[in-house]
Amino acid sequence: MKKQQGFTLIELMIVVAVIGVLSAIAIPQYQKYVAKTEVASVLSTMTGIKTNIEAFVVENGRFPTGKDKETPKALGAPESMPLGAFTITPSGTDDAGTLDLKFNKTNVNALLKDLTLTLTRTKTTGVWTCSTKDIEQALLPKGCTSSKS
């Protein structure tokens, strides 16, 4: 009698099937994890800019216009943001407006491409809210809301 050495074809096929099932579950979860991390990074950067906008409102009595010396870059946005571009938009009232980041079409997670995250400052209370119309709620940090169904 010969001693069996190695694996049979069936055993190898079972191993390949198990690896396939595990990767089918793990890869989408990893993509969501990366997207959540990118959103958290952007929100962290936006919070720093928000602080500078708040100081601008206190000093000038109005929300920045987003033009000339009141651009996101002038208010503390990084020189180059590989994930997207910031915009500042006053809402027409004195001290209210929005700070938006639109994610790039490239160099960003597929779940976030060309989507927008918004911080909005209300007029009378000066409270900031985090919202989005197109990013799914599962990818947002606590405190941010999504109107995407």
Task: Quickly list its features.
1 helix, alpha+beta, 149 residues, Glycoprotein, Type 4 Pilin
How is this fold's topology laid out?
Elements: H1 9-60, E1 84-90, E2 97-103, E3 116-121, E4 128-132, E5 144-146
Describe this structure in words.
By secondary structure, the protein is of the alpha+beta class. The protein has one domain: Glycoprotein, Type 4 Pilin. Helices cover 35% and strands 19% of the residues. Strands 1-2-3-4-5 form a 5-stranded mixed sheet, covered by helices on one side. Strand 3 and strand 4 form a beta hairpin. It is elongated. 19% of the residues are buried.
| Order of strands in the sheet with most strands | 1-2-3-4-5
Kindly name the structural category: alpha+beta
Number of helices: 1
User: Tell me, what's the shape?
Assistant: elongated
Beta-strand proportion: 15-25%
- Could you give the order of the helices and strands? HEEEEE
- End-to-end separation in angstroms reads 66 Å
User: What is the level 1 CATH name?
Assistant: Alpha Beta
Roughly how much helix do the residues carry, as a percent range? Answer: 25-40%
Poorly predicted regions: none
Number of strands: 5
CATH homologous superfamily designation:
Glycoprotein, Type 4 Pilin
CATH architecture: 2-Layer Sandwich
CATH topology: Glycoprotein, Type 4 Pilin
Tell me the count of domains: 1
The radius of gyration is 23 Å
Mean pLDDT: 89
The largest sheet is: 5 strands, mixed
